Amino acid sequence: MSQVILISRNEVINSLYEVNLRAYVGTNVTIKANARDALQLLDLSPNIDAVICFKELNDADSGIDKMLEYIEQKEYNTPLIVLGELESPSDKVIVVKNKYDLKQVLQSMAKILEITAKDMAQKKVPDFFPIPLKMFSQISKSHCDIFYRVEEDAFQFNYLPIIEADSEIGGSLQKYIDEGVENLYVPASERLKFINKASSMVVQELERDDLTLEERSEVTRQVMNVVAEEVLENEEISAEMASISKAGIASIERMAKETPKLRNLLKMLIENPGDYCYKHAVVASYIARQIISKISWGSDEQANKVTFAFFFHDIFLVPIYRKYPDALSEEDLLFRDDVTDEEKQVVIDHAKLAGQLVKTFPRCPIGADMIVTQHHGMTSGQGFAVNFKDDISPLSKIMIIAEEVSTNILQEFEDADAKIKVNKEAVANHLYERFRNHTYKKVIEAFEEAKL
Predict the structure, then answer these.
(1) Are residues 114 and 143 both part of a single domain?
(2) Region 402-409 average pLDDT
(3) Which domain holds residue 187?
(4) In a domain, 203, yes or no
(5) Is 452 exposed, middle or buried (0-12, 13-18, 19+ CB in 10 A)?
(6) Residue 157 is inside which H or E element, if any?
(7) Listed ranges 169-173, 226-230, 335-339; the one with the highest mean pLDDT
(8) How far is CA 362 from CA 138, 161, 333, 365, in A?
(9) Which of 170, 196, 222 is the last residue of a domain?
(10) Does the global pTM surpass 0.85?
(11) CA–CA distance from 230 to each of 146, 233, 237, 318, 370 (Å)?
(12) Helical axes 438-449 vs 276-293, angle rounded to 10°
């Protein structure tokens, strides 16, 4: 098994990177609190495959520059992966600009180890997979059995079930915490699902005030994906997923409030390919909030309700867009030959399904299920309106206009190198052409007044 040293005091990051590197690229992670301890270990094991650290690394006796100098002096061939954007990175350093971008970290490590995506998919793992004990503390209920490993003989282990699937974890862990146990185990077949669910622990990071826009966006994207995977399987929103969703929704609200220009938000989103549903939800929420701020009856409560709705409105499309990452819209999915009939039916019904799902949200905002159901102009939530009528709620009309703008903008600015400048007049003309009813025109006028 390949070996990595991670220099970090952040337990959330430690657990998340440790379990993901082991699961996807077969890498064992040793965590050290500072550069000095990491270099001492490197001296003992010079065949370490990589050292990972944060850009903020600044020990009294050894920062990033000194680490590089030491590695070169010792003639070690150990690459250094730095998490966070450096002003003038050395060509001997692999930089992952966003420290929460697990995908980029895994890709960087796979490149070092010369592991292909196919190798990762076909990687064989033991029957039981280790999960750091502290990750279990973030989960109230496990979807699978959890095991404790006992060494029966030299390198011969027995795995004892200690927590049954779907039972509360609660205080069951305290005994193992007191004994200093580092890992418990889950069946290997369940490891990726468990890791995805456990990744919700990054929600803690959303409370940090020092996150950059890019870091906040990446964590929020992960939150949305975790929620999507969980609620689509259970078809309801548990108290745990509701708590995680609230953190994601609040983060989108914060991004909208703290980003002065839409183009700043667009540039950041466009630079990271994939996850269309997430990008669409963020951009549409931003636009809807701007529209609401220009409407006489608009309020923060209404704006927050619409952000809540956008977080969930396309949640049933998340796995479909992931399967067809080049798809540009729901209409595109419906007319593609490679999309199955079953998937097309989900596209047709997704507003209705999302509205039903939102009803299971504990203390769901009043009327949120209705505006989610109506976000394509159909009171039933099935299909897509051609002639937009007045028989839907005012907030649904705002969602429809904001969604139309978001779709057009994301289609126009696919290239991260393109100069991003939204032609509001051209967008408004398109909206007036498509939405001819008087009440929609009022929303479009508010869009024209909004500062983008």
Answers:
(1) no
(2) 91
(3) 128-196
(4) no
(5) middle
(6) strand 156-163
(7) 335-339
(8) 20, 32, 32, 9
(9) 196
(10) no
(11) 19, 6, 8, 12, 22
(12) 90
